[in-house]
Amino acid sequence: MAYIITDTCTKDELCVEACPTDCIHPKKDEEPFEAATQLYVDPEGCIDCGACVPVCPTNSVFIVDEVPEDKQEFIAKNAAYYGK
Question: Which of 11, 22, 60, 67 sits most deeply, having the most CB atoms within 10 A of its CB?
Fold first, then answer.
């Protein structure tokens, strides 16, 4: 998994729009969107392009190796969302 999203995500979908591989979910038109507390990056669909990083207004997207110490739990949460 190249990128992960943390709990500061506001689900504004700017990252979804920027992603060329459609690997960030759930989207507003998907059933789990309302219940989700944040968006998640699909580790199998991510091509490590980084397009999601600069468009995030809350700085919630990180390269997995650069996730702050206090946000490490979100590596597992992102993977778990996709059953990985």
Answer: 60
Tokens linked to 3: 């990128």
The residues with which 7 forms a beta bridge, in sequence order, are none
Cα–Cα dist 33/84, whole Å:
19
Q: Who contacts 83 (Cβ-Cβ below 8 Å, separation ≥6)?
A: none
The answer to whether the beta carbons of residues 15 and 5 sit under 8 Å apart is yes
- Domains and their CATH numbers in the chain: 3-81 (3.30.70.20)
Which DSSP string do the residues of 27-69 spell out, in sequence order? Answer: -TTSGGGTT-SS-EE-TTT--S--THHHH-TT--EEEGGG--G
The string of pLDDT tens digits covering residues 15-40 is: 999 999 999 999 999 999 999 999 99
